[in-house]
Amino acid sequence: MTLPPQPVPNEPYKVVPIHKHRELMDQCIALINAEWPRSYTARLWSLESSKETLPTSFVLTTNVKNETIVLAHAKLSPIPADREAVFVESVVVARERRGQGIGRLLMQEVERHCFNNLDLKKIYLSTIDQEAFYAKLGYKLCSAINIFGSRPTLNKSTKKIWMFKSANSWTNNE
């Protein structure tokens, strides 16, 4: 199995919650909208909902010439029907930085936060075209889940591939 490339050597990366770095919101909105266009206001509202509990939006940053640059984003949302699980959404890496291991670094920090800090048992996500990336990170295919209401009714979107990772499998891989 080929491992993903390592990040650029000697380049310092930080994964930080956006609610503690509001000065990065405009960059984060531009990054997410480059992949999935929505109104500025809708994105701002979503990012402003980030907090210590859920939902939380994380950004992976680096410094270039004393300026903090947002390279990646992931949002953690609660799953009302399962208080021991989280749904990871809006995972995006700046196009020019893809294939450098940045997405892997971001997801490792997201997992650490979910399993260690929040003491959750499962991470769920859905993807249309990144199944191989998540599989390399240890995510397994699963049935669709309901990420909105408190009833376990399944979301059966035909385009999306649903995946999960459990705290038990993460602990064994760390």
UniProtKB/TrEMBL annotation:
Q: What is this protein called?
A: N-acetyltransferase domain-containing protein
From the Swiss-Prot or TrEMBL record, what is one GO molecular function term?
A: N-acetyltransferase activity
According to its record, what are the GO cellular component terms?
A: cytoplasm
InterPro entries xref list: Acyl_CoA_acyltransferase, GNAT_dom, NAA80
Q: Where is the N-acetyltransferase domain?
A: 16-168
